[in-house]
Fold this sequence. Notes:
The radius of gyration is 17 Å and the shape is elongated. It starts with 10 loop residues before the first helix and ends with a helix. The longest helix is centred in the last third of the chain and has 32 residues, at 99-130. It contains five helices and no strands. It has one domain: Ferritin, core subunit, four-helix bundle (Ferritin). The chain has helices at 11-39, 43-69, 80-95, 99-130, 134-165. α1 runs antiparallel to α2 (43-69), α1 runs parallel beside α3 (80-95) and α4 (99-130) packs antiparallel against α5. The chain is mostly helical.
Amino acid sequence: MALFSKDIQTMDDLYLHTLEDIYYAEQQIEKALPQMIDKASAGPLHDGFQSHLQETRGHIERLEEVFRLLGEEPKGATCPAIDGIIKESNQISKEISDSSVLDAALAAAGQAVEHYEITRYGTLIAWSLEMGHDGCADILQRSLTEEKAADEKLTQIAEQRLNKAA
């Protein structure tokens, strides 16, 4: 189902599609993070990615809980945005030989991912509340809080260490 296709006719359709989008995105992030962990040479960046991998697994579980609350089977909808962010990160990291510069690039890529997730979770929370899915909003809020914290942690690591080293 493509965004704004004839398959999306109602707010319920759009809500479900966006939920499927972030579910797919979280699954792709779960696959990409181990590579980012392996490439990160700075200890705080490595540890931050490792910690976020565990959080990402929790986000997937929470999304599955939201699907169940809605009476839907968990499934993903291809998300070209997250695919593009991950593809760009992979391409850039192949081109960089200096480990300090690579760490800065990885942190930036991580933040691009976080910003995408923040927008999706924020939108879903607002829609959940408007549509009367308060329980879903509460579950999604936990993931949004973690995404914002991960973004802030990446900012601190980059500004205190990585950017200067690069």
